[in-house]
Design goal:
By secondary structure, the chain is of the alpha/beta class. Helices cover about 50% and strands about 10% of the residues. About 50% of the residues are buried.
């Protein structure tokens, strides 16, 4: 397998030749991979002001804004609705998105969009509104009234209703991914709808929109982004471009998160977190996630817990489990975080970061001991289990869940 060496300032990526088995340089060999970036990114302080122009570029007049109640009250009118209407765009707000967006949210939103005659969507918020908007776009364009019909990687077969992403948290990177994770409320599990055809036309990534995000949300979404970057870099299907952006994301997040939690209006810290989240989103959408996400999605499906919180809590424990399979890569994570030269230093640094930003322990979230076996089974069935650097069975997941609950 090809190994990439990234300089301390992440400006240079060098391919190191594998050896021929005798310690001598071999051929430079990179296994085949594909990298597709369907979404145009507009990044910077105040870039949300470009939204009316971007809607105009789509050539549409009727737009539905997909968000949640909290974001609508805090941002929607001033940042989105008023500017659109002043530019002559007819805008309707759908704010029925719940945390861990549900199939019912998608189906209600699609029904409203059809009745209204929406020609495009604007997704405003964190990962929940953005993922919900992707799924609404699929239902409106492909037909039907159940999003479950489009679960998987092959069911979306043509371009979806055009949409623009406006993220308001630094965490999910959903603005540049082309998958949507939706809770199947009947089966109580998180399904994934995925296709490059679902990608946003443009992402307006504005760090200023995160200045008023509460400290705890900043902390949990921030470690969620760190999880994306670390898992993207260490899974079995990682590749050179995602490796490079993942390492830069790890560096930015690890040096910015504490300051962003401590002072939400620290522009440098908010910028570092927003860029780190964006890069982490690019990384894992072109690589994959691993067992942290498998466990977090199981918890979210059963307990409806915040996805970012679950990822953040479980990350150090899965890293401990994986360590012997990731010694070199975790050592590079440690160097990216500026904490040392070995794998154990990376795990210790992640544990310290979670502690410093005030994340809770798993055993404070109301998890029932009697549910651990079911949670382990759900985790093992997750398609991303096969990407984890160390193989994991149901019994392995159960062991990690128990360790996290006991600590």
């Amino acid at each position: 397998m090809a190994i990439f060496q990234v300089a301390s300032d992440f400006t240079h990526v060098q391919l190191i030749s594998p050896t021929n088995g005798r310690g001598e340089p071999g051929m430079n060999v990179t296994r085949p991979f594909s990298f597709e970036m369907p979404t145009r990114i507009e990044y910077g302080m105040g870039v949300v002001k470009n939204l009316p122009a971007e809607v105009s570029r789509l050539g549409v007049r009727k737009v539905m804004v997909v968000t949640d109640e909290g974001v609508r009250e805090a941002l929607a009118d001033d940042a989105v609705i008023r500017p659109l209407k002043e530019a002559g765009t007819d805008a309707l707000v759908f704010d029925g998105v719940e945390p861990n967006p549900k199939d019912r949210n998608v189906e209600e939103g699609a029904s409203i969009a059809r009745e209204y005659g929406a020609e495009a969507l604007v997704a405003l918020g964190g990962g929940s509104p953005i993922d919900c908007a992707k799924a609404i776009a699929v239902l409106v364009s492909h037909g039907g009234d159940k999003i479950k019909k489009y679960e998987g990687k092959t069911a979306v077969t043509r371009p979806v209703l055009p949409w623009i992403a406006v993220p308001t948290t630094a965490g999910t990177g959903s603005e540049v991914t082309f998958s949507s994770v939706i809770t199947d409320t009947e089966a109580k599990y998180k399904m994934t709808v995925k296709s490059p055809l679902m990608a946003a036309k443009v992402a307006l990534v504005d760090p200023e929109l995160t200045f008023t995000v509460p400290a705890f949300v900043t902390a949990s979404t921030g470690v969620d982004a760190l999880t994306h970057a670390i898992e993207a870099y260490t899974v079995t299907c990682s590749e050179p471009i995602s490796d490079a952006v993942a390492l830069q994301a790890i560096s930015l997040i690890s040096r910015s998160l504490r300051d962003a939690v401590g002072d939400g209006r620290n522009a440098e810290a908010r910028d570092g977190m927003m860029m780190g989240s964006l890069l982490a989103g690019i990384a894992f959408s072109h690589s994959d996630v691993g067992s942290v996400h498998c466990m977090a999605e199981a918890l979210g499906g059963i307990y409806d817990l915040p996805h970012g919180v679950c990822n953040a809590i479980l990350l150090p424990y899965v890293m401990e489990y994986n360590m012997e399979y990731c010694l070199e890569r975790y050592a590079r994570v440690a160097r990216a975080m500026g904490v040392g030269e070995d794998a154990a230093s990376a795990i210790a640094a992640v544990q310290a970061l979670c502690r410093d930003v005030g994340l809770p322990a798993l055993n404070t979230l109301g998890i029932r001991e009697s549910d651990l076996d079911m949670l382990a089974e759900m985790s093992a069935r997750n398609i991303s289990t096969e990407s984890n650097p160390r193989p994991m069975t149901k019994e392995d997941y159960l062991e990690v869940f128990r360790r996290a609950m006991e600590t």
